Amino acid sequence: MLSDAVVVLDLADREPVVITDDRLAEVIARLDESAELSAVGSREHTERLRSRVERLGSYRNQPGGFWVASTKPEAAGEAFAGSTPLRELDAVALLSDGASRLADRFDLMSWPELLAVLRKAGPTELIARTREVEASDPNGMRWPRGKASDDATAVWWSTGD
Question: Considering the entire predicted model, what is its pTM?
Answer without folding.
Answer: 0.83
